[in-house]
Amino acid sequence: MSIYKKVKDLLPEHKSVVSDNEFLLLDRKDFHISQISAVNATLMALGTSPGYPFRVFLGLVDQFAAALRGKDFNLIVGDPSLTLAGFQFWMRAGGSAENGKTYAPKGLARFPEANDILAELTKNFIALADQRPKSKPGEERLDHFTLVLGNTKAADQTIFAVDRFIEIKYGALLLKDYAKVGAFDERDYLESKLVFPTTLFEGHALAMKL
Amino acid sequence: MSQLSDIDKLIRADRLDEAETLAKRITSPVGTRNSILGTIALRRGGHQEAEVFFRAALAANEKDLIAHTNLAKALIQQRKFKQALPHARRAYESNVKVENLALLYVSCLAEVDDYPEAARVLKPFSDVDTPSAAVLISYSSVLRANLQPHESLVQVQRLQHLYPDRPDALRAVADAYAELDPARASVEFARLSQSHDTVQIRWNRSFVELRLRNFDLGWQLYDAGLEDTIGKIGRPLPAQIKPLKLVKDLSECDPDKWTVFSSEQGLGDQILFFGALAEAVVDRPKSILLTEERLLPIMRRSFPQLGCYPYAFGINLIQQHGAINGVLPVGCLQKTYRTTQQSYSSQAAPYLKPNNFLIEKYQALIKKRFPGERLIGVSWRGGYWDRQKRTKSYDFEVFCRHLSKKGVRLISLQYGDVKEEKAVATKNNWPVTFIDGVNFIKDIDAWLSLAMVCEKIVSVSTALVHGAAAMGQSVELVLSDRQAPFIWGTLPGQSLPYPTVTVHRQSPTEDPDQYLERLAELIL
């Protein structure tokens, strides 16, 4: 957090700064890295400390899960790099053998070593996920909310997630780092499919179907 | 005018829809219209809606005393006592002879801990031949909270004489004795419970029974503190874990599912309750603990077999019904594992593990600075509620004057603002060292490590006593002649939960100066 330290020293007392290696926000409170954040609690327990943009991404995922209030759901993890985000959604939405279905056609990444309840939940999340290459929600599950998580480091990642989003009846598409310089936003493709996501300050894109 | 009279009649007849229709036809003055609509909302139980109308009425006419009164009522119903206070005061001051307005004002004062003012307001209403039961109940309660237990008892005896059959009068009697004579209070509560077994009575009675060391019954009754009706003076759980299913008894927990233990209340209570945690973890190995972030390093070190997480982790588990049993506040473990005095004494070993790295670091620094001196950790102020502060705390000058002996170095372990005390110590050239750079409220691990560096602790009843004692430190506990937290019982001597804590009590014939002088001779 070198930018933070440099700027903080120059600011008057009580001026809040939230920063990362990529950005800096003045007069914003740091609720992401605090003991009130459910996402932060997960990250601490798993011993990982991602940057702010990914924390915001996880925060969005977390809120979609909370909004479901225990209802059945589909989760499509479009890239193994989004395994942690997928897990946060699944855990928070009440994922289990009886509730929720995860599809990870590109596979899931390994979790950092966890203990106790987290070890059990991460193990269940992976064991219950359908990781077959063409896995996706069947017709009989399309009435449930579906969250599609996609990355944008390569054009095929973006297109893959958008294609999954087009197929669902209702739900949300979250594209990580969509507006980042160098990301494969594939705007022409999205527009051709009439998908017009909104972009958040941190660079993620969000599209909804309700 | 006749329109207002008609509306008033309709409201009194509870014909609220008709009253509302008429009220909405009033175009001016707007304040009157809003005041009436607020009254209708209040009658319907719509306290938030009423608040909006009364605020609008006051915006139009700041002198509308009915709006002030009713806004106070609407706010009190929502437990917004601080916001209600100025409106209740305004209403009361408009006519200090109206009993209902006085009681309204007192209910706000009591919630903001201003008991002296509450007693002043109620006194004239009590100083009549036949005060109302409401006045006597409120006045006796206020006097008790204002540390005037004998005066409170006088009012309670009048209440008993004038209104012998009222259940709230019976409860007031039991509450009054709780302060003065716990054994008598226990009898009164037992009698009362046969006919009126309410949550409030169970909660108040729990302290009496626990103080008398009737632990089996006391801890059962203590669960009443988890009910919403008891509010913030009970055992309110952190918001992050409130959505989880509440489990009050370990026997209800399926051993194949995860049991989520949770800290509760202030730091001292939490640490006391952790005394039963090791036994619970043996009985339910599939368990985790949710606690304050500042306690995590200590708890992880002390219970390596137990997953310890901040409260917010509980949010992640709200929908994990299949994986978890629910949340069990650690206070609830007491009724399983601490039902007798024997159950305390048989388990009275240190259960929090000190931070040896920090202790060695502080030891090196402090002993180098004060070679050959006896290091005594001190804390003279405690309590969260105003009443607790007044019953627990001692004036710094009185506390440290007698402890400042030759060869003794007092290490201040007092949390909070100590600027004034620093100045007093410097002025008197007392051997008191204040530690800069460690926040005793946030950095509990450092605080308790400093406590462990000392030869012993001399402290009023605060979290420091629980934390240091749970780590095995020797503590001289300084209690006043007022009622102390129930866990210290009613007698002096070795404490029940912590064998390294010696309880000292100020005798009613001693003043604080004499008491501290006697203590200093005894313990240093």
Uncertain parts of chain B: none
Put simply, the count of helices of chain A is: 7
Q: Say how many strands of chain A there are.
A: 8
Distance between the termini of chain A: 39 Å
**Structural class of the secondary elements of chain B?**
alpha/beta
Radius of gyration of chain A: 18 Å
How many strand elements of chain B?
Answer: 11
Structural class of chain A: alpha/beta
CATH architectural group of the largest domain in chain B: 3-Layer(aba) Sandwich
User: Helix and strand succession of chain A?
Assistant: HEEHHEHEHEHEHEE
Helix content, binned percent of chain B: 40-55%
Strands of the largest sheet of chain A, in order across it?
4-3-5-6-8-7
CATH fold title of chain A: Rossmann fold
Which quaternary structure do these chains form? heterodimer
Tally of individual domains of chain A? 1
Question: What order do the helices and strands come in, and which of them pair?
Answer:
The complex is a heterodimer of chains A (210) and B (524).
Chain A: H1 2-10, E1 17-19, E2 24-26, H2 38-46, H3 52-68, E3 73-77, H4 83-92, E4 101-103, H5 116-128, E5 145-150, H6 155-167, E6 171-175, H7 187-192, E7 198-199, E8 205-209
Parallel strand pairs in A: 3-4, 3-5, 5-6
Antiparallel strand pairs in A: 1-2, 6-8, 7-8
Chain B: H1 2-12, H2 16-24, H3 30-43, H4 47-60, H5 65-77, H6 81-94, H7 99-111, H8 115-126, H9 133-145, H10 149-162, H11 167-180, H12 182-195, H13 199-211, H14 215-222, E1 258-262, H15 267-273, H16 277-283, E2 287-291, H17 296-302, E3 307-310, H18 313-316, E4 324-329, H19 334-337, H20 341-345, H21 356-369, E5 374-379, H22 386-392, H23 396-403, E6 408-412, H24 419-428, E7 432-434, H25 444-453, E8 456-459, H26 463-470, E9 475-479, E10 493-494, E11 501-505, H27 512-523
Parallel strand pairs in B: 1-2, 1-4, 2-3, 5-6, 5-8, 6-7, 8-9, 9-11
Antiparallel strand pairs in B: 10-11
Helix pairs in contact in B: 1-2, 2-3, 3-4, 3-5, 4-5, 5-6, 5-7, 6-7, 7-8, 7-9, 8-9, 9-10, 9-11, 10-11, 11-12, 11-13, 12-13, 13-14, 15-26, 21-25, 23-27
